[in-house]
Amino acid sequence: MNLLLVDDHPLFGLGFAHALQAARPSLKVFTALTLEEGLARARAAPDLDLVLLDYRLGTAQGGDGLVGLMTFGRHHPLLARAIISGDEDPMLARRARAAGAAGCLGKSAPAAQMLQAIDTLAAGGEWFVFEPDSRACESPTPRQLAVLQGIAKGRLNKQIADDLGIAERTVKLHLTALFELLQARNRTHLLVRARELGLL
Length: 200
Description:
- With 200 residues, this protein is α/β, with parallel strands linked by helices.
- It folds into two domains: 2-134, Rossmann fold (3-Layer(aba) Sandwich); 139-196, Arc Repressor Mutant, subunit A.
- The chain is built from nine helices and six strands.
């Protein structure tokens, strides 16, 4: 199996590669210090099975590892990709999923668990170890996202209903579901939470 780690902390990258290769000699770990270097390595190694991007990774375009994750998705859409982070924050897991990650791994995980996660991700599965509960695995439906877009444009419930060709009470039902799913208190907070999760 071939793995690419994109992390701008060289000591972590070396330690990560050494620990995993000691546990499984057949695993080949490539490292890159920048997003641009990682993209170049991925182009040069089409047999990669998985890319892990550090959440704290800075990018030339600005942003963090989630921006890098989406950039990788545009350039290598078939390559499994995940975020790795020292911040084991449930909200990060949700944001990573919304940005297209197949997983969100903690840097403190022991080598055996990390290898299990890598195997799962490379096989097309998901690995989100610190999502808080089952609701974190849910994503808004396409219709709920359409309602959310209407809210973001400042449209009223009746206007959203007219735009989407549905009843106003249905818009209210979608909003109730969105409030619960995104754990939002009101419409303004809903938009804040949606942006945090990369839904807008």
